[in-house]
């Protein structure tokens, strides 16, 4: 199974793993590609999937070379890269949080060429104050390490639903790299101030006919689960899964459940491509 890291379209960092049908992995805000790497456990060396773990324009290792002042700027730079990379090729998309919002817009641009989508805790309402959110709930499993850095603990507890030493270690490995790298990034400030795209997720996906799987956490206080359900109800061919005891990092909180749904998505995609 091959793996390489490269700058695509001059400035976009892409970590490619495996060979075969391309799956574009789009992370959330203000994270980087590490946040989706837990899903690597769902692939085997016998799979025929090439995963494109992208650092979104302006974020992660793609922060230089772009003038990002809004979510629309990210979408434009990303679509330029995809058009160049997949000129004649179909592909699939995994979109996490903000990556899910971008995926919805790409559905309008590429249509049936995106053979399927897996949306993990997708952002469907850009404005924080317009989202339908559950009350904060935390399930304590075990104490955090006594030597844990105060800044890391604060970042973790901002979204933690299942609080445990094991979950904290996963957070530090997959989520924290993007968070720490965004602290002095001017693009992050612009994106926080201008998070909306030209249309809503439902408007972008109104003509999309390919399968969509949406997985959300019942305790997600960042984007919630109800707004994603509203999107689900507008789609032509969709699956909606809401997991209990799971927040915005649901693929860490309920890893086995998310991976089970993801493997099913891969299996269905494989059937579709035959």
TrEMBL record:
<dbReference type="GO" id="GO:0016787">
    <property type="term" value="F:hydrolase activity"/>
</dbReference>
<dbReference type="Pfam" id="PF00561">
    <property type="entry name" value="Abhydrolase_1"/>
</dbReference>
<keyword id="KW-0378">Hydrolase</keyword>
<dbReference type="InterPro" id="IPR050266">
    <property type="entry name" value="AB_hydrolase_sf"/>
</dbReference>
<dbReference type="InterPro" id="IPR029058">
    <property type="entry name" value="AB_hydrolase_fold"/>
</dbReference>
<feature type="domain" description="AB hydrolase-1">
    <location>
        <begin position="22"/>
        <end position="253"/>
    </location>
</feature>
<dbReference type="InterPro" id="IPR000073">
    <property type="entry name" value="AB_hydrolase_1"/>
</dbReference>
<protein>
    <submittedName>
        <fullName>Alpha/beta hydrolase</fullName>
    </submittedName>
</protein>
